Amino acid sequence: MKVVIPGGSGQVGAVLARAFHGDGHEVVVLSRQPGNAPWRVVPWDARTLGEWAGELDGADVVINLTGRSVNCRYTPENRRVITESRVDSTRVLGEATSQASHPPRVWLQASTATIYAHRFDAPNDETTGILGGAEPDAPDTWRFSIDVARAWEQAFEEAKVPQTRKVALRSAMTMSPDPEGIFDTLLGLVRRGLGGHSGSGRQYVSWIHDQDFVRAVYWLIEREMFEGAVNLAAPNPLPNAEFMRVLREAWGAPVGLPATEWMLEIGAFFLKTETELIL
């Protein structure tokens, strides 16, 4: 297969590119900051049509992972870039796909499990799950993330590509050993003796192993009956306190200091990020 991965220079993109390349497939990554890689990396601006669009003509699969990292403070400017990087790239990929003589047979589009409401009464699945944003006690940062997810999926839905099957990947946090990923961050807390529960510790952690993420992507490519939103997550989410306990046990750390919400807010301020993913 020829697999085109816009935004494939990030952590999840690298996981997929390594897997497809290792299995002998042709991999093309579209990147705003091209660098050296074992596969071809083609420059694009993620906003306008260009020579990169020719890579989609005759490709088998496109997997769009483009989007500015949310590991930052949610300033007005960062909010704008986070939203536009996702929506603009999705729209221009729709334009390129619609104009291709031989468009990809399947388009897998990154989305996020963050689109769902925070709840304790039931899991959120694709048919009965409750989309978030309307909870009266939801912090502004949570509502922003859900607004981004909704706009991202709307741009994907509006793309007119009748010859291409479309699947939105509502993925949980991908746990891989790569540096600077979420697993690396959580394990770093455990190593420093800070791997206790965060906030109340009751909030559920939805996650997926990087190898299972790759298998799920292959599975969705091969099964033409699947369209629309699909959840990619391990079947048993854990409360934060339990998740961190298991991580401490696996690492051999006897104790882990807990962090209250106000402690996390102070830490996030100095680290120039937000507490949303933890709380």
Unreliable stretches (pLDDT < 50, length at least 5) are: none
* CA radius of gyration: 19 Å
Question: What fraction strand?
Answer: 15-25%
Largest sheet: 7 strands, parallel
C-alpha geometry? globular
CATH architecture: 3-Layer(aba) Sandwich
Count of DSSP strands: 11
Number of distinct helices:
7
CATH class wording: Alpha Beta
This entry's quaternary arrangement is single chain
**Widest beta sheet: strand line-up:** 3-2-1-4-5-6-10
Q: How many domains would you count in the coordinates?
A: 1
Q: Might you state the CATH topology name?
A: Rossmann fold
Following the backbone from N to C, one meets helices and strands in this order, namely EHEEEHEHEEHEEHEEHH
Structural class: alpha/beta
- Tell me the CATH superfamily: NAD(P)-binding Rossmann-like Domain
* Overall average pLDDT: 93
Distance between the termini: 40 Å
Give keywords.
36% helix; Rossmann fold; alpha/beta; two-stranded parallel ribbon
Task: Outline the fold blueprint.
Blueprint (H helix, E strand, L loop, with lengths): L1 E5 L4 H12 L3 E6 L8 E4 L17 E4 L11 H24 L6 E5 L29 H19 L6 E7 L1 E3 L6 H10 L12 E2 L1 E3 H13 L5 E5 L5 E2 H12 L9 H10 L9
Parallel strand pairs: 1-2, 1-4, 2-3, 4-5, 5-6, 6-10, 7-9
Antiparallel strand pairs: 8-11
Helix pairs in contact: 1-5, 2-3, 4-6
